[in-house]
UniProtKB/TrEMBL annotation:
Keywords recorded for this protein, A-Z: Germination, Membrane, Transmembrane, Transmembrane helix, Transport
Protein name: Spore germination gerab
The family this protein is said to belong to: Belongs to the amino acid-polyamine-organocation (APC) superfamily. Spore germination protein (SGP) (TC 2.A.3.9) family.
Transmembrane feature ranges: 12-34, 40-61, 82-106, 112-134, 146-163, 183-206, 218-241, 269-294, 306-324, 336-358
Keyword S-adenosyl-L-methionine: no
Protein location: Membrane
Tagged with keyword NAD: no
Topology relative to the membrane: Multi-pass membrane protein
Gene Ontology BP terms: spore germination
GO-annotated cellular components: membrane
InterPro entries given in the database record: Spore_GerAB
Annotated source species: Lucifera butyrica
Main location: membrane
Length: 367
């Protein structure tokens, strides 16, 4: 491929953070609370630790195979044919994640704000914007993440501050009321969503300092875990875990509660704008990663002709894969974690072990 983009470590961090928050700002907190109850925030810590350990492997592989992402070093490790069979699973994973993100926030807009709007119109308009950004290149996408990331952090801190008077700490107690099983099921569950940051493998070859891959992932997933813990703790402490687990978007419900006299109301509109922004940026990144991965496997000179067809495919999957929001939630809660765990952990650990056993390494390249 002719395109050779460069991103900074700072952009690396904010892009991964946006990927995490694009999921955690919607239905993930409720699904996690349904899995772990009052122990949901502890499960976030467990998922964070597991993801950091997994990041060590991705960062090591990025340095062991300089200038190559996992789509490329799959062929270096396994050979041309087997490597392509394994390597194509990573772009397909990005396509599935793009579909989940866009369907999720499209459903949120319909359920809460535009109940008569056709889902197809929402997906078409948002995916068109995401595809346009993806065609402009990764550098454009990550520059937008640098703007939106700090706004997200500021917004959750403001929500936490303004909602504090409604917090009931007793609703968070006791911990491990049902033993350690809820925690043990919740931690790997949220790991599969933090794990969309396997995107780091696509970023490391393009980073101006590839040796900072682990540091960037550690910072971003730590910020994302802190964001998730605040969301989960507030949802349980304000609504109780029984009510919170039945909400589609606890963050939106929390922001709806904020009202200071006649001067500060309807702040959920700001929250939704941030959710939409993060969803479009994350989807643009997924479209870019899918298109680049397929272009590399097919030996194309550029990925750009693939972007709009990929966006159309993602839209069709979003429209036809689920007949209702309940089906989409069930897929996200039960089917996706199994598929994601296989891709995020299973395949990469397999490649890691195979590379060690057969002493496979990439060729040193000038960045």
């Amino acid at each position: 491929m002719q395109e050779r983009e460069i991103i900074t470590t700072n952009q690396f961090v904010w892009m991964l953070f946006i990927l995490i928050t694009s999921i955690t700002s919607m239905q993930l907190p409720a699904m996690l609370i349904a899995q772990a109850g009052r122990d949901a925030w502890l499960s976030v810590l467990g998922g964070w630790l597991l993801d950091v350990l997994l990041a060590v492997i991705y960062a090591y592989m990025g340095l062991r195979f300089p200038g190559e992402n996992f789509v490329q070093y799959s062929s270096t490790i396994l050979g041309k044919r087997a490597g392509k069979l394994v390597g194509v699973l990573f772009p397909l994973f990005f396509l599935v994640v793009c579909t989940i993100i866009m369907r999720g926030f499209g459903q949120l807009i319909i359920d809460f704000f535009l109940p008569t709007a056709p889902l197809a119109a929402i997906l078409l308009s948002s995916l068109f914007v995401a595809a346009y950004a993806a065609r402009q290149g990764l550098e454009v996408i990550v520059r937008n993440s640098e703007l939106l990331g700090p706004l997200y952090i500021f917004s959750i801190l403001i929500v936490a501050l303004l909602i504090t008077p409604d917090v009931e700490v007793n609703l968070l107690k006791p911990q491990f009321d049902y033993g350690v099983r809820p925690f043990l099921t919740g931690a790997p569950f949220i790991l599969t969503y933090f794990g969309i940051c396997i995107m780091m493998s696509m970023f490391i070859p393009l980073c101006n300092r590839p040796e900072n891959g682990f540091v960037a992932k550690f910072i971003s997933v730590s910020l994302g875990a802190a964001f998730s813990i605040i969301m989960v703790v507030l949802a349980v402490a304000v609504f109780g875990y029984k009510q919170a687990e039945n909400m589609y978007a606890p963050g939106l419900e929390l922001s709806r509660m904020i009202s200071i006299g006649r001067y500060l109301e309807r702040v959920e509109i700001i929250w939704v704008m941030l959710v939409i922004g993060a969803g479009i940026i994350a989807s643009a990144c997924m479209l870019w990663a899918f298109s680049v991965g397929i272009a590399q496997l097919a030996g194309l000179r550029t990925y750009k002709p693939l972007v709009y067809p990929t966006a159309l495919l993602a839209m069709m999957l979003g429209l036809t894969s689920f007949h209702s929001s309940m089906e989409q939630t069930r897929f996200a809660e039960y089917t996706y974690p199994v598929f994601a765990a296989f891709i995020e952990a299973g395949l990469e650990i397999f490649l890691f072990i195979t590379a060690l056993i057969f002493n496979k390494r990439g060729k040193s390249t000038l960045h």
